[in-house]
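Example (one chain per record):
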Amino acid sequence: MNSITDLSIFVGVVKAGTISGAGRRLGLSPASISKRLARLEEEIGVRLLNRSSRAMSLTEEGKILYHKLLVILDDLEEATSSVSRAGDNAKGTLKVASTVGLGKSRIASLIAEFSRNNPELVVQLYLGDKQIDFIREGFDVAIAIGQPSDSTMIAKRLLKNRCFVCASPEYLEGRAPIRKPSDLKKHECLILDSYGSFRDLWPLCGPNHREMVRVTGSLITDNSETLRNWVLSGYGIAIKSEWDVKNELRTGKLVTLLEGYTVPNMDFYIIYGSRKNLPAKTRNFVEFIEERKRIHQA
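Predicted structure:
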């Protein structure tokens, strides 16, 4: 039977990203950790980590064991810390990632409300528009655009997010008209270079076919808020989502272009580990967010 300590060390190494980093957290020498990992792999009979002097990555078997151990170790922690506790209160630390725009406008306030209802839980919110690595970065939940490529994760759609090609009237004034997708090539296009975005290859779906247009522009950002400010300031044409610029479209600060053509949705999903027994903190948070979604849709 594998030692609980060795299994815990394996999880600690994956979370830290390096053996030396895990050693600092666990108070063990790198040599001791390496020895324990080697012993664990020998007992199990499979390699769990691909290790070199510069990098470390999980094998497929390592990924499976890591996700299962997270559940087991969470259960052990809860069992030892809440023997006398009735109910299913969330404890510990919940680490949440979210896209910048949605995170600031909606998720941050929901997390504050969730925190008030769960006083024994510390909630960490990290905002960014880049793809995250759940294992390396230690996230419990993510709010992201699109579904993850990792089939071991669960993704539930939170928000339909229609997109439009749009610009300000100030930018359009005196410039060449935009009647068909290829006309975009004559214009300054603002490019969002982030996970889930279309970058400089814009898909336009017409009544009879889908056209991919390679656009160009002198302004590129990985931040959706910056892109929003640029298009509102008249610096060019952008693809923006309905939830982000709904008011500006209604008031005429922005206008949609290429009527008759649509852009694929950039729907928001809540993503978390595919486990049969989620930790209480993760399960409670997912249920809370889904309940608030139903309230806003009612």
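Caption: Confidence is low (pLDDT under 50) at residues 83-87.
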